């Protein structure tokens, strides 16, 4: 199998398909509110595959979607290409117990400046690892997702920090859904109008119709909001979202839709207007913050870690002569969507161990209304390569802040 990972210093098609493939597999497990980053996991699995042997090597290669012999090279190129994505910071770190002998050919294959050691003072060592996670994510993830123990011999970690500012900010207006799981709640609603109705569209999947909205960032990163029919499950909607991002699913843009209810949360109608604009897009959604902690060993088969986690054997002779198995593999992730932009971060680690006056309406416009007022999915995507950097599901949006007034006026007023 040939892997063209990069093209002119940018992410190439094969790398994007491999990482998005892992996103797709992981998305099949989503049942509730979460955020995840397969982009944060993939390089770690690749470097492990490079040093693995036997069933562990075969399982890791299958999860990666590339041959184990090409995995380390693909991971290095992926990390180098991620550095060219504006608004994204990616880092890799390796720490080993001072007594663990490493194979120099494996360690030298990691990006420069990633290697450190720790001793028997686990409190100090854990503080160093936690500080690394916080620094590399701008404080969004405050701790390393794994905890050092007396048996720990190696920690391989990756960090991603993503930020983008909306080209057109949202106004804030309380949102009170009159149906669905959020009915009766007053939420921190976000609203904006634009003359780009094709930012939203609808597609048909075997599981039902899905509405997708693109919210463009100012640095080449877009966030896609995806809303399925009420009967659809989160994994079905997110899988459709990946297909839309990859352009494998055809999307009928808002400007080509007929009048009426045309998709989940999507309605097209003629309405009075204050300006002579023939087509308008009206979007209502919610601000949200989603946090998640993932135990990757709970999905060991998905990540190719079943054999590697068997502590009865050593599985990584290419890393060290000392027999190593995967003792922990975890990811901590966060995503924030607000009126001005989007921020997200993930740290993944593998531990080896033994808003006037009423307007005057003079015109009519066709208005495409999109309302994301019940649970929906999101995908943060590099616009050029279409690599999914983060994905998640929103079940608990931010409430409208309560306005507090003083009990009495200050003296003299």
Short description:
By secondary structure, the chain is of the alpha+beta class.
Strand portion, in percent? 25-35%
- Which CATH first-tier class of the largest domain would you pick? Alpha Beta
Structural class: alpha+beta
Q: List how many beta strands DSSP finds.
A: 21
CATH architecture of the largest domain: 2-Layer Sandwich
Number of helices: 7
- What is the average per-residue confidence, as pLDDT, rounded to a whole number? 90
The parts where pLDDT drops under 50 for at least 5 residues are: 1-9, 403-413
Radius of gyration equals: 24 Å
| Biggest sheet descriptor | 7 strands, antiparallel
What is the CATH homology-level superfamily of the largest domain?
Antithrombin, subunit I, domain 2
Report the span from N to C terminus: 77 Å
Care to describe what's here?
By secondary structure, this protein is α+β, with helices and mostly antiparallel strands. 21% of the residues lie in helices and 35% in strands. The strands form four sheets. A seven-stranded antiparallel sheet has the order 3-21-20-11-10-9-12. It has a six-stranded mixed sheet with strand order 5-4-6-18-17-16, with helices on both faces. The longest helix has 15 residues, at 13-27. It is elongated.
């Amino acid at each position: 199998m040939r892997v063209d990972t990069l093209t002119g210093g940018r992410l190439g098609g094969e790398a994007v398909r491999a990482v998005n493939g892992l996103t797709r597999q992981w998305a099949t497990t989503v049942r509730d509110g979460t955020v995840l980053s397969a982009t944060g996991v993939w390089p770690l699995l690749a470097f492990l595959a490079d040093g693995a042997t036997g069933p562990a090597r075969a399982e890791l290669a299958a999860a990666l979607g590339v041959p184990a012999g090409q995995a380390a090279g693909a991971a290095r190129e992926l990390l180098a290409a991620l550095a060219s994505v504006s608004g994204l910071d990616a880092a890799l770190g390796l720490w080993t117990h001072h007594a663990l002998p490493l194979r120099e050919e494996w360690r030298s294959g990691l990006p420069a400046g990633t290697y450190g050691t720790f001793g028997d003072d686990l409190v100090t060592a854990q503080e160093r690892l936690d500080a690394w996670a916080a620094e590399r994510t701008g404080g969004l993830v405050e701790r390393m997702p794994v905890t050092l123990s007396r048996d720990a011999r190696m920690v391989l970690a990756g960090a991603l920090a993503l930020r983008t500012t909306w080209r057109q900010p949202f106004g804030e207006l309380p949102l009170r859904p009159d149906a669905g799981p959020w009915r009766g709640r007053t939420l921190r609603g976000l609203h904006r109008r634009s003359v780009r109705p094709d930012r939203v569209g609808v597609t048909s999947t075997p599981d039902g119709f899905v509405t997708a909205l693109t919210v463009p960032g100012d640095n080449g990163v877009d966030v896609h909001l995806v809303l399925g029919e009420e009967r659809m499950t989160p994994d079905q909607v997110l899988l459709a979202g990946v297909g839309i991002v990859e352009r494998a699913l055809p999307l009928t843009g808002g400007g080509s839709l007929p009048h009426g209810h045309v998709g989940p949360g999507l309605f097209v109608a003629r309405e009075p207007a204050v300006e002579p604009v023939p087509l308008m897009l009206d979007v209502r959604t919610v601000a949200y913050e989603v946090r998640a902690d993932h135990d990757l060993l709970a999905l060991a088969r998905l990540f190719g870690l079943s054999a590697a986690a068997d502590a009865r054997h050593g599985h990584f002779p290419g890393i060290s002569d000392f027999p190593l198995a995967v003792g922990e593999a975890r990811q901590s992730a966060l995503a924030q969507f607000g009126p001005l932009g989007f921020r997200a971060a993930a740290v993944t680690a593998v531990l080896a161990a033994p808003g006037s006056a009423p307007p005057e309406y003079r015109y009519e416009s066709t208005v495409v209304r999109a309302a994301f007022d019940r649970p929906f999915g999101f995908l943060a995507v590099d616009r050029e390569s279409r690599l999914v950097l983060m994905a998640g599901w929103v079940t608990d949006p931010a409430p409208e802040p309560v306005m507090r007034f003083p009990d009495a006026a200050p003296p003299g007023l």
